[in-house]
Amino acid sequence: MKILITGTTGYIAKRLALRLLDDKHELVCCVRDMSRIPDEIEEHPDVTFIKVDFLSPSNVELPKEIDAAYYLIHSMATNKGDFESLEERCARNFRELVVKTNCKQVIYLSGIVNDNALSKHLQSRLQVENTLKSGHYGLTTLRAGIIVGSGSASFEIIRDLVEKLPVMVTPKWLNTRSQPIAIRDVLTYLSGALLNKKLYNTSYDIYGPEVLTYREMLLQFAEVRKLKRYILTLPVLTPRLSSYWLFFVTSTSFQLAKALVDSMKVEVIGKASDIQEHIQVDPIPYKKAVELAFQKIGQNSVVSSWKDAISSGVFNDQLAKHIEMPHFGCFKDVRSRNIHNENYTIDKIWSIGGKNGWYSYDILWKLRGIIDKMVGGVGLRRGRTHDNYLEPGDPLDFWRVLFADKSQKRLLLFAEMKVPGEAWLEFKIVKNKLYQRAVFRPHGVWGRVYWFMVLPFHSFVFNGMINALANE
């Protein structure tokens, strides 16, 4: 069967694509930025790619011979304020394109919406569901709550809290109940619903076997990690203070923190249904889901992460718009070193950042990350998805990978820290010589002031970094 997938570079879609390819389906993957095609499927013979931005899909036609489509586009972490209207517009444009094809079914992954007082995020999900309905195809909506898996937003936030804070002073919403579900169960439901006519024009809640408060999830996570943790709940933390608390303690962006706090005040408990009669799933308990996630992390085989989303940083543009570094009106720091072992240097470059650090004056990099977090930036807490593998779109501390090609011996990063301008950092090897180039395009007077303020640190930070990369 020929299956259309949207949100191809997202947390769910990237994993679902691999599952569907294992099931021998042919995929048509929609991407907004062709430079961000996942390496795992880029060369697969059963995958074709279409460049389309569903916010403004001008001059785009989907292949007519499509059997089914997955709608996996969400804007929860967007920097733009009115994400509800953006999501509604995306869904409407998607529907208008799909009705021109032979698509028989659209499968939409939404959120559980059983509470009367929904958050803006869940209200938006319900609005998208209504927008996707059409007489031309059957709509199947699967509504999930907290998704637990390596790289999921909820998993990484809980991990940050548990592993960094022996004692937690927390907001009262930690007593809100939820019904978490393992990522592998979500994928089983999504793939199992495919072209099942009994599921056309229906919606189902999908959830794990336990109803847990967020407090219980934190403590059970700590048990899996063999950590003793204490939690004190205060009723006085306002939603805004709660958002700042999540933002400063975890790797989440402030936009996502606000959306999460808004949602965490609402109970997310699934309604019983006959879904098991159509898709056989034995839901995994929460602690088992956490254990399986850490197995993936230990094997360095995390397929996708919520941090891969461009909206987890500071810009929503396509990466391709930033790949060409400017030459005029910029400040530059260019250094070079002869290298004796090219493979060693390439491996060091591809392992930079995250828990490996930046090889020189790492304390200053950490300090810069703290300052960035204090002024509303992403800081260093995002780390990196893989220890020694990079592809375009990956987060790398407070950078975003624009270009990563070992065959071309080049890595290009774009700064997502808060700076009065735009910054690039490039590593490139040409004829056994390593070139390290930092380029900064200032915005106004403050951009120029900023460059000269940090310039004294370049002499030893950048110098030490290139020495470490060049020398065994």
Please describe the topology of this protein.
Elements: E1 2-5, H1 11-22, E2 26-31, H2 39-42, E3 47-51, E4 68-71, H3 83-98, E5 105-111, H4 120-132, E6 138-144, E7 147-148, H5 153-164, E8 167-171, E9 177-178, E10 181-182, H6 183-192, E11 202-206, E12 212-213, H7 214-224, E13 230-234, H8 239-249, H9 254-264, H10 275-278, H11 286-298, H12 320-323, E14 331-338, H13 342-350, H14 362-374, E15 395-396, E16 399-405, E17 410-415, E18 421-429, E19 433-442, H15 444-470
What does it look like?
- The chain is of the alpha/beta class and 472 residues long.
- The chain has 2 domains: 2-307, Rossmann fold; 313-470, 2-Layer Sandwich (Alpha-D-Glucose-1,6-Bisphosphate, Chain A, domain 4).
- The protein has helices at 11-22, 39-42, 83-98, 120-132, 153-164, 183-192, 214-224, 239-249, 254-264, 275-278, 286-298, 320-323, 342-350, 362-374, 444-470, and strands at 2-5, 26-31, 47-51, 68-71, 105-111, 138-144, 147-148, 167-171, 177-178, 181-182, 202-206, 212-213, 230-234, 331-338, 395-396, 399-405, 410-415, 421-429, 433-442.
- The protein has a 7-stranded parallel β-sheet, with helices on both faces.
- The protein is globular.
